[in-house]
Write a structure and sequence with these properties.
Layout lengths: L1 H16 L31 H21 L5 H9 L9 H13 L1 H15 L5
Helix pairs in contact: 1-4, 2-5, 4-5
Amino acid sequence: MIRSRVLLTIAALAVTAGLAGCGDEGSKTPAKISAPSTAGPSASASLTPERMETIFLDTTAAHLCSVQSRVYTDPAAMADAYASKPLYTGLADAQVEQYQQRVIADPAFAERLTAQIQATCGTTTG
């Protein structure tokens, strides 16, 4: 569906904006969605590049699906929720920024994120 692909693209771009504020309306508590990880936050140096990509893709997909599953009466609250940055367990902020830029610049990586969102949210396009 074109609508789904457009919403996924907008959501991915909103995440890359790095704006703060997710949670209940009026709350400025950041989202605390993270991918399961056996490594601690300081262990990102020991993670393989593939595992770091998986953490980024899984966490981003879980975050966007969580936002998508809520009903928002205020469009600004919905925009803030999409734009909020989840907790990427095991990744440094600089690594997250690099992956966010890849979503914009690398069509293949963006497609992987789209596929992960579809798998996580349980939706398909076509």
